[in-house]
């Protein structure tokens, strides 16, 4: 019985890399368009170019909004604050959860405190938490929303990391490090953290998507960005009364939010190690 040719085992990996590159390229489109938006926008941000809620025409490719401003120009301007805010929330939340979760499995007292904090945070609705922090921080604007998303998302994320790190805390190499007298920080950073890459990448994608939804929800409720600021979620709220006159004033920013969330989530899932596929190939 002859062995399978090595090319057959390389094709799936090569195809997976191609899919990953494609997904990364697609996911990069919304951020790149948002960053380059002010440079490629056909009209100035606050300048009316057509009648209010005018349908798409020569003066405005996607028509006008409630004040006759170009919808396309405002969409190109409105994504940068949302993307940067969601990226900041996902980065801070994932980093804090990864470090705290890795330490929690090595220190039972920290683990119990994390569990109790997560239980309280999960019971608090995100909208209520955002409103409380916004009221406690008058004039905080978008920073208040970002702070609320980090505070409310970190305890739950810590529990996810701790659950994934718990089996590693009893592994042989961790016990060997404990026997050598290594510090808790060393074991968490050098022995446990490198084995959580799949969890961390997936968690980052989920935290980013949740941050997009939370910041968008806050913007829709005008907690954070205020008119006449250009923001995708704020555009949906402002132009909702004229959705029957020019649907693109609402559809365009809504599609931008959905495309951003979906593509980032797919990319993080594709970058995570596929342990199931490896197990099947070994078998």
Topology, please?
Layout (H helix, E strand, L loop, with lengths): L5 H35 L30 H8 L1 H25 L3 H16 L2 H11 L5 H28 L2 H8 L4 H9 L4 H24 L11 H8 L8 H24 L3 H8 L1
Helix pairs in contact: 1-2, 1-11, 2-11, 3-4, 3-6, 3-9, 4-6, 5-6, 6-9, 7-8, 9-10, 9-11, 10-11
CA-based gyration radius = 23 Å
Class by alpha and beta content: mainly alpha
Report on the biggest sheet: none
The best one-word shape is elongated
How far apart, in Å, are the first and last alpha carbons? 17 Å
What's the SSE pattern? HHHHHHHHHHHH
Q: Percent of residues in helical segments?
A: over 70%
Please provide the count of β strands.
0
Low-confidence stretches: 1-12, 275-283
Average pLDDT level: 77
Strand content: under 5%
- Helical segment count: 12
Protein architecture, described:
The protein is mainly alpha-helical and 283 residues long. 72% of the residues lie in helices and 0% in strands. It has helices spanning 6-40, 71-78, 80-104, 108-123, 126-136, 142-169, 172-179, 184-192, 197-220, 232-239, 248-271, 275-282. Helix 2 packs parallel to helix 11. The radius of gyration is 23 Å and the shape is elongated. 39% of the residues are buried. Mean pLDDT is 77; it is low at 1-12 and 275-283.
Write a compact overview of the structure shown.
The chain has 283 residues and is mainly alpha-helical. The protein has helices at 6-40, 71-78, 80-104, 108-123, 126-136, 142-169, 172-179, 184-192, 197-220, 232-239, 248-271, 275-282. The longest helix is centred in the N-terminal third of the chain and has 35 residues, at 6-40.
């Amino acid at each position: 019985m002859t062995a399978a040719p090595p090319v057959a085992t390389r094709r799936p990996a090569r195809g997976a890399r191609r899919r990953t590159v494609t997904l990364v390229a697609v996911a990069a489109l919304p951020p790149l368009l948002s960053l380059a938006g002010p440079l490629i926008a056909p009209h100035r941000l606050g300048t009316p170019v057509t009648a209010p809620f005018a349908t798409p025409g020569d003066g405005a490719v996607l028509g006008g909004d409630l004040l006759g401003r170009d919808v396309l120009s405002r969409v190109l301007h409105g994504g940068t604050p949302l993307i940067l805010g969601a990226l900041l929330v996902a980065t801070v939340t994932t980093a804090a959860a990864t470090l705290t979760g890795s330490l929690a499995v090595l220190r039972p007292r920290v683990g119990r405190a994390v569990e109790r904090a997560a239980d309280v945070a999960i019971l608090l609705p995100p909208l209520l938490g955002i409103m409380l922090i916004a009221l406690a921080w008058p004039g905080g604007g978008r920073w208040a929303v970002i702070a609320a998303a980090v505070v409310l998302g970190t305890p739950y994320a810590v529990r996810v990391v701790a659950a994934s790190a718990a089996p590693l805390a009893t592994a042989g190499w961790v016990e060997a490090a404990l026997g050598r007298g290594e510090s808790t920080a060393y074991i968490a950073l050098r022995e446990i953290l490198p084995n959580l890459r799949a969890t961390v990448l997936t968690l980052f994608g989920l935290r980013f998507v949740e941050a997009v939804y939370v910041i968008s929800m806050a913007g829709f409720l005008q907690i954070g960005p205020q008119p006449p600021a250009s923001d995708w979620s704020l555009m949906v709220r402002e132009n909702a009364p004229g959705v029957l006159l020019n649907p693109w004033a609402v559809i365009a920013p809504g599609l931008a939010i959905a495309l951003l969330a979906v593509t980032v989530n797919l990319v993080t899932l594709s970058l995570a190690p596929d342990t199931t596929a490896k197990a099947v190939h070994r078998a």
